[in-house]
Amino acid sequence: MRIGFATTEYVTEKYFSGGLANYLHRVAKALVSLGHEVHIVVLSEIDQGEYEYEGIHIHRLTSGKIQQRLNKVTRYRIPQTAECLAFSFQVYRKLLELHKQQPFDIVQFPDWNACGVVSGLLLPIPQVTRISSYRPVWLEMSGMARNRDERIIEYLTWLQMHHIKHIYAPSYTLKKILAEKAKINHVGVIRTPFYLETLNWDSSIFNEYLQGKKYLLFFGRFQLHKGVHILAQALPQVFKKHPDCYVVFVGKDVSPSMKEYALSLCSQYTERLIFIQPIPHNQLYPVIAGAKLVVLPSLIDNLPNACLEAMGLGKPIIGTVGASFEELLIEGETGFLVPVGEVNALATKINEVWMHPSLNEIGQAAKVSVQEFAIEKTVKQLLVYYEEIIKNKKSA
Question: pTM higher than 0.90, yes or no?
Answer without folding.
Answer: no
